[in-house]
Write a structure and sequence with these properties.
The chain contains 15 helices and six strands. With about 325 residues, it is mostly helical. Among the domains are: about 130 residues, Ankyrin repeat-containing domain (Serine Threonine Protein Phosphatase 5, Tetratricopeptide repeat); about 90 residues, Serine Threonine Protein Phosphatase 5, Tetratricopeptide repeat. The chain is elongated, with a radius of gyration of 36 Å.
């Protein structure tokens, strides 16, 4: 090989080597991690592991609590679901029981065959009621085996008006659903309504408000009316059958002198149809200011009827 050719080859090899070295010098270099960054990353990883561990531990505790809750009820999962969703409300336990096969929509609670939604409504488990419906698929329209929906059962319950003060609610729970404090149940029914419950449902073809009145459960009639149910005044001469007797409901507007004053007058005159009409319009059967001329005291509508010796009215209205 001649000297010029050999020299050119050497130069070409040298140039290739320089180009290769230049390219390598431009290649990305693995970034170095400072000790501070490494410590921070380790802390984040440790916190993430601890968080996952805590979640697993919490799930295990809830499962164990549900198993104990179920065992304490002779492994009757229907009973366990009913009680975990109501008077012994424990949502995490209830959630685990549902995972174990329980249902919040099964008509298995109490002697009337209600659902867990109904039990929660009866006991006034307000926020829990929404969680049962939204997270566990509870249906606020499923009735009990008697055909009564959760809104009706809520008006029966001892929960009281959860939007009022605690003393009133405590009194309602102590004395039961016939106390004035227990007549509205606004908190519980609010949660039912916002999750799809209807106030104007029917049972055996009759509106709930009329059904309650015919059962002489006027506190429930008032509760339903207070919370948005409508009295069917559009029905021609609507009648209530109470103890085998029909009563025509002919009054559809509150009297100008006030509904309680009108109720007192109707009780004094033994006008039972008017009394029933005023009650379904929202009058309070325990109103304490009924007055009779020439008597030095005030009394309730029942006392008013007793003073005027209307025994039939007194007996009927107190039942």
């Amino acid at each position: 090989m001649s000297e010029p050719v050999s020299r050119h080859l050497q130069e070409a090899v040298a140039i290739d080597a320089l180009i290769d070295l230049h390219n390598k010098s431009r290649a990305p270099v693995a970034p170095t991690i400072s000790p501070e960054d490494l410590e921070s990353a380790e802390k984040q990883l440790l916190e993430a592991v601890r968080g996952e561990y805590a979640k697993v531990g919490e799930a295990i505790r809830h499962r164990h609590a549900a198993e104990i809750f179920l065992k304490d009820r002779a492994n009757d999962i229907d009973l366990a679901v009913c009680e975990a969703g109501s008077k012994f409300f424990q949502f995490e336990v209830l959630q685990e029981l549902v995972k174990m096969g329980g249902s919040v929509n099964k008509q298995a609670c109490g002697h009337r065959g209600g659902t867990t939604v109904q039990e929660a409504a009866y006991w006034g488990v307000d926020e829990g009621l929404t969680r049962i419906i939204k997270e566990l698929g509870g249906d606020p329209s499923v009735p009990n085996k008697q055909g009564l929906p959760p809104v009706y059962v809520a008006c029966e319950g001892p929960s009281g008006d959860s939007s009022g003060d605690s003393d009133m609610a405590a009194s309602a729970k102590k004395h039961g659903p016939k106390t004035p404090q227990a007549l509205s149940h606004k908190g519980t029914i609010h949660h039912l309504k916002k999750n799809g419950a209807e106030m104007n449902q029917t049972i055996d073809g009759k509106p709930l408000v009329m059904y309650a009145a015919e059962q002489q459960q006027f506190h429930i009639t008032k509760c339903l009316l207070d919370n948005g149910a409508d009295w069917p005044w559009d029905v021609k001469s609507p009648k209530l059958r109470i103890r085998g007797k029909d009563y025509v409901m002919g009054i559809s507007a509150v009297p100008k002198n006030g509904i309680e004053a009108a109720l007192c007058t109707a009780a004094r005159n033994n006008s039972q149809s008017q009394v029933l009409s005023y009650l379904v319009l929202g009058a309070d059967i325990e109103y304490p200011w009924c007055w009779t001329p020439n008597l030095p005291w005030y009394t309730t509508p029942l006392g008013h009827a007793a003073v005027h010796r209307h025994k039939d009215f007194e007996t009927k209205s107190s039942e």
